[in-house]
Amino acid sequence: MGTSFWLSPAFILAAAVTLGAGCYSYIYLPYQMRRSYRQSLLTLARAVETKDVGAEGHGERVASYVTEMAKEMKLPAKEIRKLEYAAFLQDIGNVRVPHAILNKRGRLTKQEFEILKSHTVVGAEMVEQITFLRDIAPVIRQHHECWDGSGYPDGLKGEEIALGARMLAVATAYDSMLSRRAYRGRKGEEQAIAELRAGSGTKWDPAIVEVFLKVLKKRHKAQGRAS
Questions:
Q1: What angle do CA 136, 99, 122 make, to 5 degrees?
Q2: With DSSP H G I counted as helix, E B as strand and the rest as coil, what are the percentages for the chain, rounded to 5?
Q3: How many helices and strands, by DSSP H and E, does the chain display?
């Protein structure tokens, strides 16, 4: 079978449904069950990322950031797991976005941008159909919303946006800036941090930006680097 089948919405949904159905057979083995979920979701994420040049590993890196942020914020372990799953699957809706749009080198037309934006809604609708993933649907739908209301798909602002989506938005933006994509080059770490600071209070929740920068500072300290 061709790659198009393995990345089709039908296959992705079938895989997720199978995973969801299997969760009940592991009810007495919570650790093994969670490990199985995590690996299955990560595999789905990696499959979707192959469509987008430069996106390989994006979900996994973002998951690492948001779990560290969540721990810094002292969120419950259950919520941290949900955030990790949301990070893995944030762009699952890209299965419905044409390869030519995801990897276009030039500026997207208005129509193309509308198609690209639809990945948030498509992704949320997909995970809503899976019982154990339903709680993360709002996070996936809203991870491109902006603090000032200028984002998409619903133009939400401030705390109307789910906390998890606000966290994903910051981590996603930072990781994307550090990655080379078809439509732009890679930015340096200092430049990415400067852009986060510049967008704090407009694009992103300022409190979440501060948490993220604190996480980065701790990472740098652990690596013996200046922040």
A1: 25
A2: 70, 0, 30
A3: 11, 0
What is the tens place of the pLDDT at every residue in 96-154? 999 899 888 888 999 999 999 999 999 999 989 888 889 999 999 999 999 999 999 99
pLDDT at 10 over 90: no
Domains of the chain in start order, with CATH, are: 3-222 (1.10.3210.10)
Query: What whole-number distance in Å separates Cα of residue 156 and Cα of residue 151?
Result: 7
Could you tell me where the beta strands, DSSP code E, fall in the chain? none
Cα dist from 177 to 171, 185, 196, 201, 224, whole Å:
10, 9, 10, 19, 23
For residues 82 and 57, give the distance between their C-alpha atoms in angstroms, rounded to a whole number. 18
- Residue 46, amino acid: R
Extract the tokens encoding 8.
């089709």
Q: How far is CA 175 from CA 36, 110, 172, 186, in A?
A: 26, 25, 5, 10
Rounded Cα gap, residues 109 and 183, in angstroms: 13
